[in-house]
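User: Can you predict the 3D structure of Intraflagellar transport protein 20 homolog? Sequence below.
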Amino acid sequence: MEDDSVSLGNGLFIDELCKLRVLNPEIATRTQQLNGECKEFVDKINEFQRIVGGFISMVSDLATQVENEKMKAIGCRNLLKSIAKERETKRQQLLALITEKKMQLERLNTQYESLLKVEADQNEFIEQFIMQK
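Assistant: Sure. Here are the predicted structure tokens for Intraflagellar transport protein 20 homolog:
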């Protein structure tokens, strides 16, 4: 950058438009450029913060959904465990009932055989009685 300003001394300058300046016009121009660049930088930082904020919000929502699904999965697992326990209890009850019914059948079969023997004895007695008359 070419400096077209004239120094008058004591910190006074005349710029290319013949205006009296307290600050060297080249420094003033550079300061304005730096100010513009700083403004761009701040805008970019704000945009970055907006994007990061959106990302954090999205990740937070996703984490909430994952946690909800995790809780559902734990609930389903516990439900399956309780169903399995219920099924095992029901199985044990049915096995006990089967054992009880088998014992009852055995007892009834024994009683039936005993009654058949009594009937046979009574029929034989009746036949002998009839024959004696």
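The beta strands are 6-9, 12-14, 20-21. Residues 49 and 55 are 10 Å apart (CA to CA).
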